[in-house]
Design goal:
2 strands, 61% helix, elongated, DinB-like, DinB family protein, DinB/YfiT-like
């Protein structure tokens, strides 16, 4: 089965919009919800929002490098052949978006430190959303297939730049569930 690369790009844009809109709603919650410490000792909603920003920050470094390399590779590789042979394995990614679906050891630099206020975090996450869209626009003809980067989380292995952006969106979705769990525990 041949993947329609243009459809994939549009689907990722739709997923990004949904995930980032869901994350954005949490900035409007009351202080009790934002600062509630769950009984399992997990993060507060405010800490989760900062973690989403930090994770996006580091993923976007790799996405930027990958998109630049993909655009350079466009000069030497056969894009049509890559598109023809590409199949997006969505099942491989589904667990990434499910909170608690597997053990996830995050690097220390992605842990919230409380150094940013909510307005700063919200503005930065909004900028990150637009960065993702600009990379998708830059690689609008399938060029994102021309660079693969290793993703160790859940043994995904080498994934292309589009899949990295999708991963970023799924990661945010995963934490929306975690924030909902916090909110449910309050009531």
């Amino acid at each position: 089965m041949v993947t329609d690369i243009f459809r994939l790009i549009e689907d990722i844009k739709t997923h990004l919009k949904f995930s980032f809109d869901e994350v954005d709603k949490w900035f409007d919650k009351d202080n009790k919800t934002l600062n509630f410490q769950p009984s399992n000792g997990g993060w507060t909603v405010q800490q989760i929002l900062e973690h989403i920003y930090l994770t996006n920050f580091y993923l976007l470094i790799l996405i930027e490098k990958g998109s630049k390399k993909a655009m350079r590779n466009y000069l030497n590789l056969d894009l049509n052949l890559e598109i023809k042979n590409y199949h997006f394995n969505q099942e491989k990614f589904e667990k990434v978006g499910e909170y608690g679906s597997f053990e996830w050891i995050r690097p220390e630099h992605m842990e919230p430190k409380g150094e940013l206020n909510l307005t700063e975090i919200r503005n930065l996450i909004t900028q990150q959303y637009h960065q993702c869209l600009s990379y998708l626009d830059l690689m609008k003809n399938g060029e994102g297939l021309l660079c693969k980067i290793t993703m160790t989380v859940n043994e995904l292995g080498k994934i292309n730049v589009y899949e990295y952006i999708y991963f970023l969106s799924l990661h945010a979705q995963r934490h929306v569930t975690q924030m909902r769990n916090n909110e449910l525990e309050i009531s």
